[in-house]
Amino acid sequence: MLAGHEQDPGPSALALRLMAAVHRLVLTGGAPDLAAHYSSVGGTGDPAAAWPTFRQVLVERVAEVRAGLASPPQTNEVGRSAALFGGLLQLLPDGLPVRLFEIGASAGLNLLADHFTYLAADGGAWLPEAPRQPGEESGRAGGDRGVLLDPAWDRVPEDVAARVRIVERGGCDLSPIDATTEDGALSLLSCVWPDQSARLARLRSALLVARDEPVSLVAAGAGDYVESLELREGAHTVLWHSVMWQYLPHEEQQRVSARVQALGQAATEAMPFTHLAFEPRRLEPDGPHRFVVTATSWPFGQERILGEAPPHGVPVTWWGSNA
Ligand SMILES: C[S@@+](CC[C@H](N)C(=O)[O-])C[C@H]1O[C@@H](n2cnc3c(N)ncnc32)[C@H](O)[C@@H]1O
To answer: Which residues line ligand 1 (CB under 6 A)?
Structure first.
């Protein structure tokens, strides 16, 4: 099965490619015997029982699975909206409309964060404009209840904006995925492991939102993309990103940072700019990497750590005064 891949470098994630290729077969109905064991399609979720059938699929479907090995695993983790959007909600005292841009956006699902419902562990919530109640049928195909992040946060942070008016949104990725196509949806779903039901549920819900609200993404590196960004009078321009910084070559990181600084210098009270990130970072020189929500807003221009979360973004612990 893996012949020819013996020298693949570790970061090419060969094992994940194999699992995703088989998961894709299961999701498309191409391996019904194996599907009986995959909880992503209603199966038992018993890995020991799945193994003989899994092995049989490898034996019988060599060509299809080997073809699937060519695709690098690519995810778009909707849980990270809890970190990015929860951060943004704390940075809008001016009430200006928001222009939202993302680098390394994958399928752009987190650019739809204002359509999601955020519940806090302490009983609070942030609801989108027309929230769907649990159990309530929506207008969306499949009777979806909308994206529910529960719990998204430990608590609703102080002074969050009740409403956000996003007047422009866009993003880039080296390999953007079109979430409105069957193929794009399958690429994302196959890279979430079949027993991760909460991740699959929020991804499936977000894919339905994306069909109603397609986001425009360009195939571009982060460095080129940020150089094309400009601020606009009367709007708050926001650049955000999650778990993509580590993939940028050092030179491209420097280009992005330089452009962020330049946009910051150009910002005024009538034309503010915010850089928001959810990325792993060492907070002490020899400490572990922690996934932190950081924000810098100009014209003030001082970076703050707003909170931290597990790698998939939920739940966020906010670091505010009443943390
Ligand atoms: C781990 S994924 C995270 C995707 C998304 N930000 C999220 O949190 O779900 C990293 C993404 O960065 C993209 N990427 C890698 N290098 C890039 C670059 N130089 N410029 C833009 N995007 C890049 C990858 O294609 C991939 O979609």
So the answer is: 74-77, 80, 103-106, 172-175, 221-222, 242-244, 247-248, 252
